[in-house]
Structures are given as C-alpha cells and as structure tokens.
Amino acid sequence: MTSKLEKFFKSYTKEDLFYIMVALYASTIIFNEFSKFFLWGFGAIFLIFYSKICIYRSKVIWAFIIPVVLHVLFFWNNESFIQSIKQLEKFTVFLVFPLIFIFQQRPINIRKILTYYSSIFSTILFLFFMYYLYINFIDFKGYVLGKDVWKMGYAFSNFLGTHAPRFNMHVSFLSFVNLYLVMNTALGKNKDSSLFVRVVCLGSSLFVMLIINTRVAIAIFAVCAISYIGYIFFVKGFTVKKMFFISAILGIISTVFLFTFPYTLEKFQKKTFNKMDMIGKLDQIDQPEEKIYNSLVTRLTVWSVVLDMSTKKPIKGYGYTNCYALLFQKYKDSNQQFLLKHKFKVHNQFLDYLLKFGYAGVLLLIIFFANKFYIAIKIRSTVFLYFCILFLAANLFDDLLRIYDGIAFSAFWTSVFIKSYLEKRNK
Q1: Contact assessment for residue 352 and residue 399, using Cβ atoms and an 8 Å cutoff
Q2: What is the pLDDT of residues 390-419, one digit of tens each?
Q3: Residue 267 belongs to domain spanning
Q4: 266 and 294 part of one domain
Q5: For the packed helices 194-212 and 164-187, what is the interaxial angle rounded to 10 degrees?
C-alpha cells in the first residue's frame, strides 16, 4: 500500500510543480541574493525542458521593456562602463520572464500562481516573524509598551535583510491577493477547509503589513480593499452575512493593532505633513532624524534639488552611474547637510529618470506605467489593477526601478498578466 506521503506527492503534476516554483520565486524576491540565484537556476531548467517558443509582436511587450531600452540607449552617457554593465544586469529579468511566460505556447493559470503564492509567501512571513520574536522578544515587548515604536517596521525588515518601504509593497500586494482569494473562495460553492486557510493567510499578511507600518502600502490597501469589498457587495451579490464576516476580520485585526500600537495613527496624522514650511531649510530643524526623516518635507526638499539640477541637462541627463554622486555633491554645494549626511536619493521614480535620462526618461516611464494600466483594464483583473495602483503610488515616493527587488517585482507580475492579455486577445 502506498503511504499518505506518496499519495500527496503523486497528486502533484508536472504543471503543479512549475507553478510552485514560480510562486516560490515570487515569494522570495525580497531576499535579493537568493532570488537571483533561484531565478537563474529555475530559468535554465525551465528553458531546457520547455522549448516551444511562440513569438508575439504586440506593442505591450515593447512598452514592457522600456527600462532596459533606456539603460541601453543611454549607456554612452556614463563615466564607468563597468558600473553600467552591473546596472544593466538587474534589468535582465525583463528579458528572462518573457521567455518563461510570454513567449511560451502553453497557457498560464494565474489563479494557481496566486494561490500558491499566497500560501508560500504567507507561510514564509509567519515563520520569519515567529523567529524574529524568538530572537528579539525584549525589543518587541518594548514596542508593545510604546518604546521607540517608529523603529519596529525597520527592525523587522532589517532582520530579513530588506528595506521596509520596499518590503511592505510586497506584503501589501500579498494582502490584497489574500483578500481576493478569500472573497472568491467565499463566493464559490466548494469551500471545504480552503476558506479557513485563506482567512489565516489574510490575517497573517495584514498583521505583518501593519507591523512594517509604511504609509503608502497601508493607505493603498485600505482604499482599494474597501473599494473592492463594495464592488463585490453591489455587483457580485455578496450576502450581508459574508460581507460582515470579511469586514469583521479586517476590522478586528486593524482595531487590535491600533490599540496596541497607537503610533500608527500618529505617524499618519503628524509625521507625514510635519514641518511643511521648512522645505529647503531642513538643517534648521532640531533633531531632524526624529521629526522629519520620513516626512514629506524631506522628499520635497530632495525633489527641489533634483529639479534644479535637471534644468541644466534636460535632454541627456546625468547618466545612471554618475547621477547620485553629483546629487550628493549638490547637497554639499547648497549646504544641505542633513540630506548629505543620510545621502538621500531621489525617492521618486519619475524624477529619478529625469535626472538620469532627461525628458526622454520621464516620457517613456509614463508610457511604461500606462501600459500596465491598459493591460489591467483589458483583462479586467482586479489583482493586476491593484498591482498597478500600488506600484505607481510606491514609485511616486520611492525609486523602485533602481533596485533588484523592485525591478523583479515589476517584471514578474507584469509578464504573468501580459501573457493573460495575449491569450485573451488571440482567442
């Protein structure tokens, strides 16, 4: 007789294993080094065994690779070609994912990817948070008692070797995927125990998102979740009982967290728009690290410096290997000691590309984002629309196409949904 373990593994087909590998990659993008090696290993194995290529000539694919195109076109405008090549290496994911997803003849099951992604990523977050509590219980106890609560999200993110705002973008997307799966499971006829699993995944991801506590991720999730729940209720005919159940889960988690960590509301109400009259005069603020480090006034001061620099080279920009050193020199020349001390980069992807590539960078980046929204609307995907809104909002206050996990996050999910768009268009 075959054991239960053997039956369990036999129940998984070759296709299921592919989707598990895909979801595992998406769940580990936050671990940069592991993610890179995993991608090359998985990509090589996949391309060896799946060689049936179907070439599409859709314009959405050309818009998808705009970041690669910009870095190639402006390759000459850099002092260090070695650094230029290293920077280009990060964008190879825009070439790898089309080979894995877009140009494959076989169709793709997005629901399977999302389901495995939800289970794997939620489990990873839960296990790491439990391990974090075990190692840093005294510090976390201090956060609960109200001591240095502002450090909480950064402490957990640093523990995982990532950066809090970028990390919470991934967790915010996971939380919405979990909400989407909960709603779809509740609407379905065969729920079994899967609804309980989905609710647990939603609860754990929401808790971690609130722990990391970055404003953009939380605000986007709150607005989109309320909108989505309202849409399901009025359009899909969700019952009042089910709606109350889902809303109660979200409400209880949020309420308990806010009572435990009231700093969250203080961060939104006071920190965000603190000292707005001090744009360009940050060094006059007493204890700026505590009062305005993550405030809008700091970003506005950086953006004013970037805009001033861009007026001098609006056509070709400063190059993507030279621009930050020149930006820091500008801080020094304009006596912005607080910005120079912390070496603040641009924290806005559109202005970042303006600094690097001039007007062409901004124009092509607008097309790049518009292409994502076009695909989301055409395939009527709630999940991808949320991805588009979240990624756009995050890039208005950060420059995520500068670092690997932001680049991979964009390339992976956009590739998956471009494949869905092409399948629907060619039916």
Answers
A1: yes
A2: 999 999 999 999 999 999 999 999 999 999
A3: 109-272
A4: no
A5: 160
